[in-house]
């Protein structure tokens, strides 16, 4: 830059109004009337010019003075490669095209010179780097706002810093590979950067206020957010998958572990893993949190399928032993139940079938492991109850937690016992157990309640359903059955569908079952007296078991 150009005054004044046709609006149209499409623009521009005439004259400075203010040298100004393709930040009106371009180049050079460079180890130092960016952008804008009296020049500065920041964020986005840093970056942009770029600056372009929305291109911002969201979901999926695989590896290495931590570690660690992702996403936005939840459900379903496949094989091998390790069964049961409850709790807003798919896999896993008891001559149930006592006595963190845990275990074992009981033919049970099947059921029910109530006094008496089964089996007249079934329903200890299954398992015909069920107080006849579920179960009960 020549000495002459350095000394040349730059009059920074409000811009000439432009019409919709891309031409300046003439004050005296020498070529004829003003185009109709520009009449509104001309009226608005005239109002603006009148307002400006009432204000102080804008200070004139040389390019040398502007360069000193921006803390750059005015000679041979080069445009930063990080700017837009057309080489312009914003239209700053000046007296002359050459001066206008010189001013824009000075502003770009100042922004590029002051902007922090990414650290060598970005993943480790992202938080510190974002703090540096925040400090520089905020400090420079506040420093210059207190000295620049032209709002167009201040707008150019805002736009250049905005574009430089967005370009910089694109570079950061390409070089981060963890969900933690993805959340950190999005959080910073939403809760820190937007505040910096949009808030009023002290004494900005006095006596006029700068319209930030006019000078900050929000489309650039939204485009970056879209890319950042996609990158974040990709990193979340990768990190959740890796964490769940590590949890599964730990479970394999701790097979047979007796510590309290080993007993609950799988479900606690996996739930903590996906909960951490939910909570991080919620700090950014509810919409993002929903998307993150869907990704977590996808990975959790894959994890559950791998876990249940492996556990099924392990427990199948255990049933072949003379003294199977029932603690493995309990551990698997508890893990499946805890994961199922978590998925059901979190799936209220889910728009996919992933939560249901996951719950179904877990339910199938729980159902597998009492079957062997109803086909074996070994005393598996007493061993199971002993393992419950041994396992949960060591998990007594506090009384209220212990009571809730034991109540759920009690209820779960009772439900599974009933389900597999009615799926087993009485003739087969008599061969495996004894001819007195109902006495065996009574003994099991009393043993289960005695054991669990000793550990947690306040648990519900979930074994009442099993005890009523004995009374139902002993009753042989229709009127007596009606009373027994009505009593079970009134006590609320079993579902209506289960009552029908129980009557069929006892050996009643379809007509007899219908007669008993129709006697219930709340009976509501349906076009199909037997549901598809009951029909399927009835066929299974009557089929020959291998």
TrEMBL record:
Gene Ontology MF, one: SNARE binding
Biased composition (Basic residues): 1-12
Compositional bias segments (type: Basic and acidic residues): 33-43
Xref: InterPro entries: EXOC3/Sec6
Recorded GO CC terms: exocyst
Region entry Disordered, spans: 1-55
Record-level GO BP terms: exocyst localization; exocytosis
PANTHER family: EXOCYST COMPLEX COMPONENT 3-LIKE PROTEIN, EXOCYST COMPLEX COMPONENT SEC6-RELATED
Protein name: Exocyst complex component 3-like
Gene source species: Scomber scombrus (Atlantic mackerel)
